[in-house]
Design a protein that fits this description.
With about 500 residues, this protein is of the alpha/beta class. The chain contains 16 helices and 22 strands. The protein folds into two domains: about 5-255 and about 465-480, Aldehyde Dehydrogenase, Chain A, domain 1 (3-Layer(aba) Sandwich), CATH 3.40.605.10; about 260-445, Aldehyde Dehydrogenase, Chain A, domain 2, CATH 3.40.309.10. It is about 40% helix and about 20% strand. The chain has a seven-stranded mixed beta sheet with strand order 14-15-16-13-12-18-19, sandwiched between helices. A six-stranded mixed beta sheet has the order 9-8-7-10-11-21, sandwiched between helices. It has a three-stranded antiparallel beta sheet with strand order 5-6-22, with no helix packed on it. β15 (about 375-380), α13 (about 385-390) and β16 (about 395-400) form a beta-alpha-beta unit. α4 (about 90-100) crosses α5, α5 (about 105-125) packs parallel to α6 (about 160-175) and α10 (about 270-285) crosses α11. The radius of gyration is 24 Å and the shape is globular. It binds nicotinamide-adenine-dinucleotide. Nicotinamide-adenine-dinucleotide binds near residues 214 and 290.
Length: about 500
């Protein structure tokens, strides 16, 4: 699909309270990270749009045409959203490729996962059963769940369509109205998703899509008294600020934040599987992944041979045109993000790191025009080095040797983050022991970066709070309520007979 075909007819209008129109914010250009060509001029949301969207959402969820629908009726709309995503799958995959430069094979998978997310939460909604709880008197006790009201969904640029779906589907399923604020640099797929939701029958005002500045639009959404929950995915510092504001409002938040995930290769690991898994874990998505396995611990007995194979594998990765079916790593999202990755590599080398591969921009094949960076592996650092402790969010791997399990666990857990970890071993008892001892929300054993929408996901420590996905993911967008139904034949005794 050519650039012109894809973006022909693409309207840069935004969705505010049921109306597609130019936002009142500063217009900006959305760029293709592979060659800096202009995708579209975006009429970004301004402060007034954000306030209007919240007011419209608040009015919309109180109407009977969304929260008041029976669960199977809302589920039918969600299924139609999934159908719409599937019908527009190829266009959505290309829009996201233009947005953040991810290879087309990867954006296709993200689009398929977004459709699956809508179907999953439609099914959860239809099969959700409220409970009759054991009663202790002449009354019937019930626990039910109600929508929260207006939810602000704030998403990052690295997997827009999938992170949007992960918030929109459960929030809408639960009967809420949603104001979605995608990252400024990746508005295309989110706006298209807004159109799909509208066509599927999400009523007017129930969904707004506001691309724009986080510090303006995001901040207004978080502070607005009518916003009853913020579902945020992004960096830890922004998440911390949101949590502070939420504390003032006593508002629930879910925070999916950064990571610096350890991958551990024991001496008895299946080496072919481990090499492939480690390469995929850190270098897929060009390392722009919250769960990137960016700290690699390898047992001393196999360290040299394992790292040698890893470096050989990294040098073979195909870094280039995201449109090519066989590309494994596209460009980084922006030029300033690549600058920050280069600064981290320089810091690592100043700290005494040894560059084993990468550490530079690739040349040739037109890649000079985009924000490409070679897969980079650095050895010789300790776990305390800045480059090993701080999230880089790029294709940079630190490799560290270990000798015994106790020291390894202390080092693997010595991180402010606790998002994910990987273990490669043939010893299932060790996998169980180490897996349970790792302080992370997800542990992959003899695999990495695999996801099921049915399995909860979220971080420990500074990687976040709250859980997405799974059946419980739906209840995160509800208020629980207890109902007591009196069944007494006589008035309550306390007042006596009056
Ligand atoms: P970011 O925190 O800069 O931005 C995320 C979103 O928040 C964007 O939409 C942004 O506009 C908005 N925002 C920025 N300032 C805001 C403010 N003051 N108030 C409200 N909203 C604001 O993150 P990013 O650079 O877009 O994404 C990269 C980060 O996201 C990494 O740290 C990565 O680890 C994290 N991430 C986490 C997960 C997860 O599930 N844990 C998944 C993907 C990305």
């Amino acid at each position: 699909m050519s650039h012109q075909d894809l973006l022909q007819g693409f309207s840069s209008d935004i969705l505010v309270g049921g109306e597609w129109r130019a936002g009142t914010g500063k217009r900006y250009q959305s760029l293709y990270p592979a060659d800096e060509s202009v995708n579209a001029e975006i009429a970004a949301a301004g402060a007034d749009d954000a306030v209007e969207a919240v007011e419209a959402a608040d009015a919309a969820w109180r109407r009977a045409d969304w929260a008041g629908l029976k669960p199977h009726q809302r589920a039918a709309v969600l299924h139609r959203v999934a159908d719409g995503i599937t019908q527009r799958a190829e266009a959505l995959a290309h829009l996201q490729r233009r947005d953040n430069g991810k290879p087309i094979s990867e954006t296709r998978a993200l689009v398929a996962s977004a459709a699956g997310t809508f179907r999953y939460f439609a099914s959860c909604l239809e099969t959700l059963e409220e409970t009759l709880t054991p009663s202790r008197g002449d009354y019937l006790t019930m626990s039910v769940h109600e929508p929260l009201g207006v939810v602000a969904a704030i998403t990052p640029w690295n997997s827009p369509i999938a992170s949007d779906a992960q918030k929109l589907a459960p929030a809408l399923a639960a009967g809420n109205a949603v104001v979605l604020k995608p990252a400024e640099v990746t508005p295309l797929a989110s706006l298209e998703l807004g159109r799909i939701c509208e066509a599927a029958g999400v009523p007017r005002g129930v969904l707004s899509v506001l691309p724009g500045k986080g510090s303006v639009i995001g901040d207004i959404l978080v502070r607005h008294p009518k916003v009853k929950k913020v579902a945020f995915t992004g960096g830890t510092e922004v998440g911390r600020g949101i949590a502070r504001l939420a504390a003032e409002k006593l508002m629930p938040v879910s925070l999916e934040l950064g990571g610096k995930s350890p991958t551990i290769v024991f001496e008895d690991a299946d080496i072919d599987h481990a090499v492939a898994g480690v390469l995929y874990g850190i270098f897929s998505s060009s390392g722009e992944s919250c769960i990137a396995g960016s700290r690699l611990f390898v047992h001393k007995a196999i360290f040299d041979t394992f790292v040698e194979r890893l470096v050989a594998g990294a040098k073979q990765l195909r870094v280039g045109d995201p449109l090519r079916e066989d590309t494994q790593m596209g460009p980084l999202v922006t030029s300033s993000h690549r600058d920050s990755i280069e600064r981290y590599v320089a810091i690592g080398l100043e700290e005494g790191g040894r560059l084993l591969c990468g550490g530079e921009r690739p040349a040739g094949d037109g890649r000079e025009k985009g924000y490409f960076y070679q897969p980079t592996i650095i050895a010789g650092l300790t776990n305390q080095a800045r480059m090993v402790q701080e999230e880089i969010f790029g294709p940079v791997l630190a490799v560290l040797p270990f000798e015994n399990e106790a020291d390894l666990l202390a080092e693997a857990n010595d991180s402010v983050y606790g998002l994910a970890a990987g273990i490669w071993t043939r010893d299932f008892k060790r996998a169980w022991r180490v897996g349970r001892a790792l302080e992370t929300g997800t542990v992959w054993i003899n695999t990495y970066k695999q996801f099921s929408i049915s399995t909860p996901f979220g971080g420990w420590k500074e990687s976040g709070m709250g859980r997405e996905k799974g059946r419980l993911g739906l209840l995160e967008y509800t208020n629980q309520k207890s109902l007591y139904w009196g069944l007494n034949e006589n008035p309550l005794a306390w007042a006596g007979r009056v």
